[in-house]
Each structure stands twice: as structure tokens, then as C-alpha cells.
Amino acid sequence: VLYPKRTKYSKYRKGRCSRGCEPDGTQLSFGRYGTKSCRAGRLSYRAIEAARRATIGQFHRAMSGQSRRNGKIWVRVLADLPITGKPTEVRMGRGKGNPTGWIARVSTGQILFEMDGVSLSNARQAATLAAHKPCSSTKFVQWS
């Protein structure tokens, strides 16, 4: 699961996503290839998991005819903020709704996924497949 088991508080304030580029997490640290966000926004835990599964599926398809040397993927974002929602047809007031899901705040230029152990073409194809899952625009980066 890509969200924490427990947090200090059950409900947090929404906050704002920083428009600027924060220096932390903008460089590749683990793998040779990566996916970088092009703008600030929010990613749901479902979108992160869907992108991770799409990448792994691409690795398995690419490595099916070869020896079992699969690629490795690192997820660099964690959905750590609970999102609340009120049920439909509930009147105004009576407090904040119950937690319904988790999101991750993503700043511009932040590395979302890193991968290694596959060829450049396979990594690029996996990044393209994974880019369709989150709602924000991403780009493929390579370690140099």
C-alpha cells in the first residue's frame, strides 16, 4: 500500500501545492531512468498504484522472452495526506467529512518513479504507459 498505516491526526487541512520547483527530490537517486512531474498538483494513491502496476507490467512483457532479469522500480512519492468527503445529500455544517482517500502533494520537477535493469527503449515505453495514469503531465528523464 502506498499510504501510511497511521498518522498523527485523522484529518488534515488541504493546503496549497507550491508552484515553484523545490530542490528536494528533483534528481535521480536510485535508478538510471525516471519520470519527472512537469507541474505542481496532487496525485491520488490510486493513480500512483496504477502507474506502478503499468510500469511493472511493461517490464514483464519486455522480459518475457529473455532470462528472468527483471527491471526494478522505485516509487518516490507517498500519498500521506488524507482527503475527506461528505456523503451525497447531506446538509451544510455538522463538521468535516470522514476520510475517503489519500493524496500526495507533488511539486514541479519532482521525481515520481525511478527504474533500472531494463533497456532505454523499454524504460521509455514504461514511462509512457505510466504517464497516462496520473492526471498531471510528466516527462522521461535519464541519468547522465
Descriptive key words:
Ribosomal_uL16_sf, three-stranded antiparallel β-sheet, four-stranded antiparallel β-sheet, 144 residues, Aldehyde Oxidoreductase, domain 3, 21% helix, alpha+beta
Under the CATH scheme, the architecture is Alpha-Beta Complex
CATH topology: Aldehyde Oxidoreductase, domain 3
Estimated structural class: alpha+beta
Beta percentage is 25-35%
| CATH H level, superfamily name | Ribosomal protein L16/L10
Q: For the terminal residues, how far apart are their CA atoms?
A: 31 Å
Q: Can you write the helix and strand succession as a string?
A: EEHEEEEHE
Mean pLDDT over the full residue set: 87
Largest sheet at a glance?
A: 4 strands, antiparallel
Number of helices: 2
The general outline is: elongated
Which percent bin holds the helix content? Answer: 10-25%
Radius of gyration: 17 Å
Tally of discrete structural domains = 1
Please identify the top-level CATH class. Answer: Alpha Beta
Strand order of the largest sheet: 3-6-1-7
* Contiguous uncertain segments of 5+ residues: none
Number of beta strands:
7
Provide an overview of this structure.
The chain is α+β, with helices and mostly antiparallel strands and 144 residues long. It has one domain (26-87, 95-142): Ribosomal protein L16/L10 (Aldehyde Oxidoreductase, domain 3, Alpha-Beta Complex). Helix content is 21%, strand content 26%. It contains two helices and seven strands, in the order E-E-H-E-E-E-E-H-E. It has helices at residues 45-62, 120-131, and strands at residues 33-37, 41-44, 72-75, 81-85, 98-106, 111-116, 138-142. The mean pLDDT is 87.
